[in-house]
């Protein structure tokens, strides 16, 4: 019997929780630490991998992703040992996608070749901005020029390179963003992620925002205009959005991230890492302890996770829509019905279609170009009431 | 039983925040009525809402034992009364049960409108009045000026006014002594047939109805069979006692004493306040004068946000009504809001208190519709009907004219703010009746339509005078005026719960203000929403709420799924707190906030 997760695939996420400096906008689980015992961490990842493999024997692994934190602070040897272990634990295709997130600093760039030798075949660089003033405001410790040099090295080393930019920054006009985006597209290889700056609570920006001290942020109208402009420019450059904030040339989508959005199963290893894991026909949400030391100590005897949450059909249905409708390919209605045990409200769909926010094909429903910018409301309207 | 000469019954009259509750606390504390470890702030305000808002809603009683300087032990019965105008009726009846009052005036502030209103109740009840100047510990205290003001404005001798700091305890002993020496002992005859005044009653889930009584003549004992003179009902007294301030059972209550009885009475409605209680056999023939019942003056609809909670709401309202005979209700259906209740209140504070209690004690989210007064509709056929709800306005072709209730409002204000107060009263269709000065304070008297006051008049008054004005009012009867029903349409659908009665000349302004407010109160939707105010079929104001521009999460990866799903659940739960009208979600607070005027 096929299980639902197989529609989305199976991936592995490794979280490296350390950064050289914490960025003011970042709400990921990252910590600044002077001393990191690379050997202890390597051993912990290896034992956790063995534990995860024992739970998922025989599954074909589609993608691996090293995220953080700043995984480009990992010793290439550590990365190599982890990848070797992964290849030995799970069957996988020859072209298994292995992505590593990297800071575009000179030190990291010096390790790119070694990561490549370790088995990393795709790199995702946190460039964030192409001018030094904005990089400083974003708390980044690299310069625009360093990023360009690192990017050249990455391009020479890896077949697949992606980079991130943040827009909707303080004091950024639509015209500023247009010229920066055009420059970015001239550099881009096959993939680019373009995020509107989001002020998250619990971050330094969040605190400043709450005090009314984060000035010059775009209002919703300017934010919406910038988003629409971004879609147009990227589409014209042959890098259309395949997800809300992700653009790629045909076939160059992030296979790992597609597992999330297509609502597959994924194992999360490392402090604060989340997973979705179907065991005995029941999908679970898993989450590891976010405190690095707690996780590291727990790894000695396989106690790194908080209690797992068995996801109800309603939870799964909500997550399926929430993730799947982000993709331009939309979601399969029949899959939704099988997963949730209910069907979507046809009146609600008709309303959203009439408003121009939803498109209904033979088997799939898709958020329209016009609807993407208010996608959260569209999804909320579609999720069946409890 | 205590001899009459050793009993003193009194109440405390004060404006809000002048320190009435603190003074009561000190009197209780300094006589060791309550052990120090059991003492809490505002001892007599037992409801959470009373403590939070710093107001007294229900009258409360405490019996204090005090050994005076003459070496004799006295019993002092304090009835603490509400200060707010909504509960003026409770004040006046509590006053009838005692012989004297402490008039507490904040020596940094002076006489305020509530001081006046309440002191008049005391004077009407023939009280001996002892002025107390409170807060003398504060640097701004000016006892001489305030004493002079008491003499000027109220007309009572304040030369012997006691100077007190309820906060530090200075003057508390003097106050207790003054109660004994200045206030008269109660009168009454021990051998006469029982005659007891029913001062108040409330429901207790363990004991049933608790009746607060003042014995005028005779004796009340546990086990007696008593008769309520108004309806003739007979009850067996199973408990009598006094408040210290917790209930303490005793065997007998004699003339002049104040205490409680329980007699397995099921409903507060069976105990008419002001009634005379006597013995079933050998009772008195002459009842006490009694009080006229209080009448609700402000009406509004209460609807559950979740229509499935209608029965819970009925249950909550019935339970609250058990304890509050001044609160009326009847079932109401609204096209937009479904089933609910039309409720009548003594005033806006009373409304808010009941609403808060339903939401808090019974955990029901409510939609409160626009408060309305009772209009008199004179039909062409000569009939007169009362209109409690603008939604029930009859066909205009059948209506001859409308009348609305008016009030006489008394406002005291420092003269710096007089202009603002006059402007506010004029804006609210007021007619000035009097303007006098007492020192640097002006006293203005206005004839105002009640419907201009029930809503946010007091809030506006406080804001234009930075809190320095005080306000009180009394009902003055009905007068004809040019009144119309204004409807509100949201996304082209009328929302009956937002209909209001307005004066024709003010309709455009009110309509404009309401649609502008609603534009801010209703969240943006995926589509644009027209919001209109109309009289009959004619639109008099219109705004358009534009469609939302941006609502999308930039980053959503594997680690975000759980958090975003929970956020979505929370948003969906938040939506449940709104009511859907057609395709538009209107937040519950919009129904009240839309009516608040800024000018």
UniProtKB/TrEMBL annotation, chain A:
InterPro entries per UniProt: Aldolase_TIM, Coproporphyrinogen-III_oxidase, Elp3/MiaA/NifB-like_rSAM, HemN_C, HemW-like, rSAM, rSAM_sf
Keyword hit for Iron-sulfur: yes
Reported cofactor(s): [4Fe-4S] cluster
Role of this protein: Probably acts as a heme chaperone, transferring heme to an unknown acceptor. Binds one molecule of heme per monomer, possibly covalently. Binds 1 [4Fe-4S] cluster. The cluster is coordinated with 3 cysteines and an exchangeable S-adenosyl-L-methionine.
Gene Ontology process terms (BP): porphyrin-containing compound biosynthetic process
Pfam families: HemN_C, Radical_SAM
Superkingdom classification of source: Bacteria
Protein's name in the database: Heme chaperone HemW
Protein's UniProt keywords contain Heme: yes
Primary residence: cytoplasm
Example GO molecular function: metal ion binding
GO cellular component, one term: cytoplasm
Native source organism of the sequence: Sulfitobacter aestuariivivens
Domain Radical SAM core: 4-240
TrEMBL record, chain B:
Keywords of the record: Cell membrane, Elongation factor, GTP-binding, Hydrolase, Membrane, Nucleotide-binding, Protein biosynthesis
The protein's enzyme class: hydrolase
SMART domains in the record: EFG_C
Biological processes annotated in GO: positive regulation of translation
Membrane topology: Peripheral membrane protein
Transmembrane segments: none
Boundaries of every Tr-type G domain copy: 5-187
One Gene Ontology term, aspect cellular component: plasma membrane
EC code(s) of this entry: 3.6.5.n1
Positions of GTP binding: 17-22, 134-137
GO MF entries: GTP binding; GTPase activity; guanosine tetraphosphate binding; ribosome binding; translation elongation factor activity
UniProt-annotated location(s): Cell membrane
Top-level taxon of the source organism: Bacteria
Catalytic reaction(s) noted: GTP + H2O = GDP + phosphate + H(+)
Family: Belongs to the GTP-binding elongation factor family. LepA subfamily. Belongs to the TRAFAC class translation factor GTPase superfamily. Classic translation factor GTPase family. LepA subfamily.
Record's function text: Required for accurate and efficient protein synthesis under certain stress conditions. May act as a fidelity factor of the translation reaction, by catalyzing a one-codon backward translocation of tRNAs on improperly translocated ribosomes. Back-translocation proceeds from a post-translocation (POST) complex to a pre-translocation (PRE) complex, thus giving elongation factor G a second chance to translocate the tRNAs correctly. Binds to ribosomes in a GTP-dependent manner.
Name of the featured protein: Elongation factor 4
Native source organism of the sequence: Sulfitobacter aestuariivivens
